[in-house]
Specification:
The complex is a heterodimer of chains A (120) and B (111).
Chain A lengths: L2 E5 L2 E3 L5 E8 L7 E7 L5 E7 L8 E3 L7 E6 L4 E6 L8 E9 L3 E5 L3 E5 L2
Chain B lengths: L3 E3 L2 E4 L5 E7 L11 E5 L6 E5 L3 E2 L7 E6 L2 E6 L8 E8 L6 E3 L3 E5 L1
Parallel strand pairs in B: 2-11
Antiparallel strand pairs in B: 1-3, 3-8, 4-5, 4-9, 5-6, 7-8, 9-10, 9-11
The chains are: A mainly beta (120), B mainly beta (111).
Chain lengths: 120, 111
Amino acid sequence: EVQLVESGGGLVQPGGSLKVSCAASGFTFSGFAIHWVRQASGKGLEWVGRIRSKANAYATAYGASVKGRFTISRDDSKNMAYLQMNSLKTEDTAIYYCASYDILTGYSLWGQGTLVTVSS
Amino acid sequence: QTVVTQEPSLTVSPGGTVTLTCASSTGAVTSGYYPNWFQQKPGQAPTSLIYSTSNKYSWTPARFSGSLLGGKGALTLSDVQPEDEADYYCLLFYGGVQPWVFGGGTKLTVL
């Protein structure tokens, strides 16, 4: 089955760290960029960041609100992408989605999301 | 900081036509911004509708179309159905340090 599945969400204290994962199956994962998007409860979508494919040197980019605190990585041998979140703030509380992207096919696949709650 | 602006809410009657727009604080939206459109219903992950201005996915209903209109990205829904009631988001590409920025979303009510 062609899908993306996020995991690893949970409750973390302010200032803490958490790593969420995105597992891909059913398609050529290595050929796509992986984007992370988040949504706080009752709010709109926010672009978090992306990692490009090996052909594009695994280039990463981040949204202004997470730059310097979040790091995106991938392991093509495992069909996995990761979002490492450090120095977490209460405003990082959100559902985190991963999505595959290619300029020729767009955002062709989304995961179901994983909830990250930052609270003391 | 770059801001992408959408109508906060729109209402349309069943069978009607409605156009949602996506404006950039940097100026006119062109094809180089690769406008993307997404639909999201309550409690669900977003669904991709349009990429690179006007390209549809295999699952995108024919009544949805994307274009550039008056310096903005646009999503037009024709023959609107009750199931089209949802939140709609646009996403623009800027390149550089923060390549992609979402609009604030449009809540579409079918009434």
